[in-house]
Amino acid sequence: MKGYRLLAISGWLLTAPRLAGQGLPAYAPVNPVAAGRSGLTTVPYLEPGRKWQVSFLTDYASLIEYTNAGDLSYLLDAEVLRAQLSVVRSIGKKAFVLAEGSFNGSYNGFLDGFLDWYHNLTGFRVTAREIRPTNQLAYEINLAGDRSYQYAGSSGFLGDIRLGGGLRHSPHWQSTLSVTLPTSSAPRGYRRGTVSLNATTTLRSAFWKRFIYEGTLGAGYTPTHGDLADLQHTTFLMLTQGVRARVAGPLHAYANVIYHSAYYQDTGIEELDNRELSLDLGGMLRFKQGPEWIFGLTEDLEPSGPALDVGFRLGVRW
After folding, report:
1. 215 in helix, strand or coil?
2. Is 24 helix (H, G, I), strand (E, B) or coil?
3. Dihedral-angle region of residue 145 (phi above 0 means left; psi in -120 to 50 means alpha; beta otherwise)
4. What are the Cα distances from residue 193, in Å, to 159, 188, 306?
């Protein structure tokens, strides 16, 4: 009997009338050890009816990962920027093509003092922050066999270009196929260095008039490349589950849970070998005319892994 109830609820969710408005903000890894491997990204459901859809989304994140276990050590203490422009062109009623590019950077930063105050206020301890100097970049990986890699920061570089296309199969289902091209000008430690192939399917449903559910399932392939080629995974999986809600007037809120499979294997360092589990939450301001404004933050949901300590998001889309 319970099974029939679950089936009925699922059917109702997928056939409920749509709520006007765009879906959740797009998400892709920004940690350099993750972004340098996987080309997966979420592709929010694209509302039909417009030939062009444009979005500009900025992520600024603080990263702190520290492991020291004998001949194995890993340190990533940096603030990273990604400013991403995405353009979508509809073709007919169901098909679309997309292009995407970004400007990126890795810096000493300025957020450490604020984050120390916030952690003291909440009683949440981050041991690595207590032993690291304030606002000083460090990015190094030391593995068994005298394998040692140090990477510098960068004031700015271009990311890989993404090209793709997709189909809206129904008001509740969309599929996208994209490739990232190795066009990045990033220094060592930040670039993917090879092509990646990525497929994403998006499910969407409106319910209770004020809510939109949006979930994605993505699979990607990236050939090995770079210093850690022998320790890299080549196939990846990303699953997201999110909800958007209209709060009042033009104000909307959203929350999205993101799972990404591991990027590396057998390094002996948990922060490299573990999966990513992140929470992306925030709000939007959507007026009757003009663009939609996006503001939010992302946080790590597990004590170790390649997610962010904290990241801030600001964007706009037309």
Report:
1. strand
2. coil
3. left
4. 10, 9, 19
pLDDT in tens, 155-178: 999 999 999 999 999 999 999 999
Q: Give the list of residues 6+ apart from residue 7 with CB closer than 8 angstroms, or none.
A: none
Q: How far apart are CA 259 and CA 84, in angstroms?
A: 21
pLDDT in tens, 35-91: 999 999 999 998 888 899 999 999 999 988 888 887 899 999 999 999 999 999 999
Q: End-to-end distance of the chain based on CA atoms, in angstroms? A: 45
Neighbours of 93 (CB within 10 A): 8
**Residue 107, CA atoms < 13 Å, CB-side half-sphere:** 16
Asked if 87 contacts 70 with a C-beta cutoff of 8 angstroms, the reply is no
Report the b/e string of 273-304 with b at 16+ CB within 10 A. Answer: bbebebbbbbbbebeeeeebebebbbebeeee
Q: Taking the CB of residue 144, how many other CB atoms lie within 10 A of it?
A: 10
| C-alpha pair distances (Å), 312 with each of 61, 144, 221, 225, 296 | 6, 35, 28, 29, 6
pTM recorded for the entire structure: 0.88
Q: Which of the 8 DSSP states describes residue 51?
A: S
CA distance 204 to 45: 7
Q: By three-state DSSP, how is residue 34 classified?
A: helix
Nearest Cα neighbor of 184 from 106, 77, 273, 239 is 106
